[in-house]
Design a protein that fits this description.
This protein is mainly α and about 100 residues long. It has one domain. It is built from four helices and no strands. Helix 2 packs antiparallel against helix 3 and helix 3 packs antiparallel against helix 4. It is elongated. The termini are far apart. The model has no long low-confidence stretch (mean pLDDT about 95).
Amino acid sequence: MINYFNSLSNIEIFFLCIGFLGQGVFASRFIVQWIYSEKKGESYIPIVFWYLSIFGGIGLLTYAIFRKDPVIILGQTFGIFIYLRNLILIYKIKK
């Protein structure tokens, strides 16, 4: 693994960091959802879950575009639109 990191250029390391950060933000949404559900005593998805999904997805999408990975690009693009749509529906109901 050390040889792999040593072989990367600065720009590759930069985008690798973006990818790891995006994955971390994306994964944190489950921890946040779990904490909120425990507090409420029932399964609950807070609004912050969708924001973490969007920002994590954008980080992963950025990394996927750099890597030119069509599978991740398609998956994250589709997911981001779904997360945005959920926020639109939530805010529409609150009005």
